[in-house]
Design goal:
Distance between the termini: 20 Å
Number of domains: 1
Radius of gyration: 19 Å
Shape: globular
Order of helices and strands: EEEEHEHEHHEEEEEHEHHHH
Strand content: 15-25%
CATH superfamily: Ribonuclease Z/Hydroxyacylglutathione hydrolase-like
Low-confidence stretches: 299-307
Bound molecules: zinc ion
CATH architecture: 4-Layer Sandwich
Largest sheet: 7 strands, mixed
Number of helices: 9
Oligomer: single chain
Structural class: alpha/beta
Length: 307
């Protein structure tokens, strides 16, 4: 049992509007707070109620005269397990399918597994959103507008946040540095993820804040799309019946995945898994099914909850 207790750090970023705050749990996830004239919106609650409470105390000066609204970008553990810290004081907004995901046996299994491995998760209780939507939902803050956009492909319930006045996109896990994780090895999930990335790119943001990746560059959307195009082209060029694309020249992790930051060892393993899953999703269904039967772990739904 590890006693490691990370703390969120407020990250100061050049040229970011002073109404936008970034809170980082190093090598785990970022959460974001937007102060508007009418409310403070907290985008994600981190991975424990304690971490979320630490963020709330940082926001206390802004919360003295404004209500708190919480948005969950999606139901993965690192984004919603802090919800218990806000359930008695805030509306929690998420896509409708987040409720199903949080009620699923897989969600309970991930919690059980992580609580057994790390003491800090013992205080986690799964708390569902109180307001849900299906395609888009707009929050009118007065000076700033938050448009919540359903952007599936990383998960079915994924939501990104667009603030047109700042041309700022909070991408959640739809975009990521070096690469985003597709829901499953099913081609349809990859198609949805690429569509979501294109939908965000079409907004022409000046700033993009993914939950993982420590970047603000709008080019992250293009880089992620280019990665999926690259592996598609290279998979197509494979000779028919080629046994395993993971081993094929041109398709290894180092040849395809070029991030902008050095990755810690655990993260390297995680993104290798993401790359394998993306390759499988790029193959035709028949080959993917065949390879899935022989490659372990990739069809496990708890994988999707890794980051
Ligand atoms: Zn995540």
């Amino acid at each position: 049992m590890t006693t490691l207790t990370p703390a969120p750090q407020r990250v100061l970023l050049d040229r970011l509007d002073e109404r936008v705050s970034v809170f980082r749990v190093k090598d785990e996830v970022d959460a974001f707070a937007i102060r508007t004239d009418r409310f403070v919106a907290l985008i994600d609650t981190l991975s424990t109620p304690d971490l979320c409470r630490a963020v709330l105390s940082e926001l206390e000066p802004d919360l003295r005269d404004r209500p708190l609204i919480v948005v969950n970008t999606h139901g993965d553990w690192d984004h919603v397990w802090g919800n218990a810290a806000v359930e008695d004081r805030a509306t929690i907004i998420a896509h409708a399918s987040a409720v199903d995901r949080l009620r699923s046996p897989q969600a309970a299994a991930v919690l059980q597994e992580k609580a057994a491995a790390e003491e800090r998760f013992n205080t986690v209780r799964i708390v569902e959103p109180t307001v849900t939507f299906t395609d888009t939902l707009t929050l009118h803050g007065g000076d700033l507008t938050l448009r919540l956009i359903h952007t599936p492909g990383h998960t079915d319930d994924h939501t990104a946040v667009w603030i047109p006045e700042l041309r700022l996109c909070i991408a959640g896990d739809a975009a990521e540095d070096p690469i985003p994780e597709v829901t499953s090895a099913h081609p349809e999930d990859l198609r949805r993820l690429r569509l979501s990335l294109r939908r965000l790119q079409a907004l022409r943001p000046l700033t993009v804040l993914p939950s993982h990746g420590e970047t603000t560059e709008p080019q992250v959307l293009e880089r992620n799309l280019d990665y999926f195009s690259l592996i598609e082209d290279r998979v197509r060029a494979l000779s028919p019946g080629n046994a395993d694309p993971f081993e094929a020249p041109g398709l290894t992790f180092t040849e395809c995945v070029g991030g902008t930051r050095p990755l810690a060892e655990g993260l390297q393993a995680f993104y290798s898994m993401c790359h394998r899953k993306a390759l499988l999703a790029t193959l035709d269904q028949e080959s993917a099914d065949r390879l899935l039967q022989t490659s372990s772990g990739l069809a496990d739904p708890t994988d999707a909850a890794t980051a």
